[in-house]
User: Fold this.
Amino acid sequence: MDKLREDKIIADLLPQEFGKQGKIWVVCLLFFAALGVFAYGRQLYYGLEVTAMRDYASWGIYISNFVFFVAISLVGSLITAVLRLTNVKWSTPLTRIAEIIAVSAITFASLIIIVDMGRPERFYNLFLHGRLQSPIIWDVIVITTYFFISLLLLYFPLLPDLKIMIGFKERNGKWLQKLYVFLGSFWKNKAEQFKITDKAINILAIAIIPVAFSIHTVTSWLFATTYRPGWDSTNFGAYFISGAFLVGAGGVVIAMYIFRTHYKLEKYITDDHFDRMGKVLVLLALLYLYFNFNEFLVPAFKMKKSEEDHLLGLFTGEFAPIFWFAIFTSMFIPIFILLFKKGRKPIPAFIAGILVVVGSWFKRFLIVTPTLLHPFLPMHDVPANYHHYIPSWEEWAIAGGSLAGALLVITFFARIFPIIPIHETILETESHENEKHF
Amino acid sequence: MKPYLKPKAMRMKNIFKIIAFVVYLIPTVLLAETVEKNTLVLGVKYYNDNNAVQHLVISAKSKIDGKFQKIANIAVKVFITSDADKNNLIGTGITSERGEFILLIPPAAKTEWAKSATQNFVAVSAATKLYEEARGEATITKAKIKIDTADGKIVNAKLLVLTDSVWKPMTGVEMVLAIKRLDGNLNISETATYTTDSAGAVTGEFKRDSLPGDSKGNLVLLANVIDNDIYGNLSAEINVPWGKPLSYTTNYNHRSLFARRGHSPFWLEFLAYGIIIAVWVVIIYLVFQIKKIVKLGLE
Assistant:
């Protein structure tokens, strides 16, 4: 490849300073994050009383948010590992987007668990006095492991790009230059270094798949190992993983569109990427739909007395509007949009991605809370508000703040590091050109 | 200096004061009359436990909505003899949620106790907002039970009554022979009660084989006179090695999925720690690979 072409790729893919829109975006996110911190301060001061969680609905939108974050983090393994190991080349520009979504989501999944604790200062006891038989401990272990693997998977492919960025000292500024030097000054593009990195990425790609499957299976077991209507299912692990892949892929499509339009990356994140990711989304939505049928049709067919209130509450009762909204927005409508070639163009695919992510968030809420409001023993002699769960403003602010925080991590990462791998893009372009020549 | 008032004006002033006072009193009196107090029934029961501890159980109940109900928080004074004089006071108590309290007969009452073969007890409660004052009495004749065993798991018990300073056997009194269990007593055989013969004795055969005892197989054998109008509640007990030694088994220290921390099944520990170690060895290996890359870069 000629030098001019290479320079053009580098110039296109180097991280850019925030423009006007970027600044507004960051300020908005900071505002929501600050609001969340303020609300959490109130929760720390007054205790969990500021939430709407009571004796029955003891898990609310914090845990819904946790499950959502864990789900969306799974995309790192899908795009980076599964597609890499199956030798799918078109996913190269999307790998870093997927990995940073995974890292930020898993970070905030950990944080939101601490938020849900009444005494967060005792969190360390989970590590010191954890009970190995408890799925909660498995979750703590698996989340920590997944975080480190995702971080490594983000870091290894970044090394050659760091060398490229160190070469732009003037453009980088003092602090960024220091950061790049600290992280990657030892990278000299030596063949042996590449060999080690390639091997490390392959090992990580293999290791992350079982860990990623574990993380969401174990999260599903937090529910499935409890004998409650709606949770007492042997199907939960697969049901959660299929849903997680769907929401993760939806998140990547949204990020692809935003980065493509904002950083003018049309040459690198092409219509073809949206077309392919659209097909992946359809496949995943159909898979999730299949598990949903299993999850609801089978118990509804039997309609055991203990399950009846819970199921009817979802189908036609108190939670029916959210239930049908979630089913249609996360599955039916995206499938309908993305089945058509025109639907897999960037804008419709972006809309489908948003529908998937929003619908999936509410789906997590429906997994967590309605079950808690339908215990086996009838609720007697409890205040009226114990029968329902409407989150307080503090809960909404904290949940919103955590989402804003995750987006801030992604935003700042894209500001500091190239969101599309520069070195890999150059290699792929070279490889394409060579293929054309022969 | 007070202003001067004419006698007539002073009289009028006094009349107004009286009217105001009467107006103030009317509702108070009317209200007081509208509160109807319930009758309180105080019960006094005497207990002689194993000829060692004598105590009284004082109970308070009242008929509410056609039913007798236990009344809590009633302060009761208890006197020895039927004279509710402060010199005879042996104790006070307040009824619990169960409408009763226990009062041990204090050593200070020994002189009064030793005077006669029969004994009176009086319980008195003052009137409260809801209940009228109440008085309950009990008169008992002092008696005791002796219990013994014979070969072939035979239980012998004898009822002795204090008559003219001498303990004499008493005939025709119903007695229960039982084994003390955790939550009540279990009769030693199918016979519910025995009646004392002319020697004041009852004999029963123990027919509860394989009954769990303590770690040595000891059981507590009881002879009881229950709620007798003359003697009150009497009991005597003796330990007998007629039970099955109890070997207490617990799964508290067993390894299981539902056990406490540090007691998970070996297979789970092997599996979990195996996976954790395997994955973290890979992570640590990769961190060392970074170190290797750094070293290569510095060469």
